[in-house]
Specification:
Length: 521
Amino acid sequence: MKLATLTRTKDRFLDLPDEIIHHILSYLPMKVAAQTAVLSRRWKHIWYSYPVFDFCQNYLFDLHLDGYMGPALDEYITPKYWGTVEKLAIILDQKLMRFSEYKIGIKKFKLFMALVDQEFHSYIDNWMEVVSKKHVKELDLSIMVGGRCCYVLPKTIFAAKSLTVLKICGYNLALKDPFMESAVDLHSLQILSLEKVYVDEKTTQNLISSCPFVEDLYLSFSGDTLQSLNVYGLVKLVNLTVKMCTNGYLSMKLSGCQGLQRVSLDHVALDCAFDDANFPQIESISLTDSIFSKGFRISSHQLKTLKIVECYEELNIFAPNLISVHHRYDSSVRPIYLPFLNENCKLKVQMDTVGDSISTSWYIGLKEYLQRQKETETLEASFYSEKVEFDREEAEKGNCLWPPRSLKCLEVDVLVPSDSYAAMMNGFFWCCRPQVLSCKTFSGDFVEFLFKMLTDREDEGCCTSSDTKCWRHSLKDFVIFVNESTEKKVPLCWDTFQKALPYYPGGSVLFHLTWLPHSED
């Protein structure tokens, strides 16, 4: 009875239209979906007419190629790898040849592949010609080219007027101007992503202008072939990311994109103003290691989130409805003051300290900044120094006698000698009183030091030479949590905590601190 029921169920499933079975297959990995072809003649038809091509050399053959390994690719090549290239080519050739027999278009073509010899370039040329003729809608290429040769993408890619998504990423991968011989029409394109592709200025501008209705534009450039970029007239553009992966700056203008909501710029010399008139829908701005023209300003009632990373110019900003600001800087340079924040805005300040040593003067500067920038809610410090020193008496000789600032969270990521732990934390507690102290679980010795430091704070002689009391007299109590995600927090005693620590390699240790009011210190 059960076998008969199973047979009827199986028959009913195969009686479904091809489109529905294809949709069900889309939830399976390509390797699993391909295996259905051996089940029956009907399943073989389903597989060969399946309009989704997702061929990843890593997944199909259990390799471990990194899409960003670049020059290291040549060192990875083994005889096993050479065989996988040929196998992938045979499988993909066969699938495309059989698919061409059906009068349906390709919904998605995704390929991750590494090429180590020019003889394989012709394979991709042929595949691109086929997918273009089959009216491909989504094209996602990640191609790494080994050796000193460079693979130039075929112009047939841009003959696919049906494209809605075009993503190209690679190493030693070039895009030459396809606009010299014939016009390119990508009016259906909604998502365009170019990552680490060699492309010149003219080709980039022509490509952008050929897709006037693009909604998501991601451009990441390497090399020195591109000096300037003008993004204009993209009336449906919602998300824009421009990143220059070199030491220089990309000169950029941005205009005529009134639907823009989110923008992220990295290593850009920007000449524009984010105001209500030009960008009435802007909600999120991220600026990383960029410089700005004299007329640059942000004046927006819609702006909700702002991220400023390693930008050291004072910014002219008016954004009364900001919800959160993330300010990251190299601690060798003073952070910029953000006077425009409203009282409801949450500010996260992230410091990267890389250098020979951190001294008392550094903590004095941090305390001054926290007193001035009262909106700071979270402070994240990454310490990568050979030595940390802090002298409270020296720090209090000046005018830096403000009480420590209350913070919601202090996140500490440390790579300093263990004999600097005490000075580092004494300096932080002199500057601030965090409700939560967070550190990564892989810093086992530092976590153990913190526990002992917070527990053994009964030192009667700690403040005999100072008129003010140190943090030990202000800390009332603390509780330990191991947090592997934002949803799971388990309070632990020390013995249980030590046993649990190895099971949370990617989590954080949270010390929830209870402080006495300043008047009771």
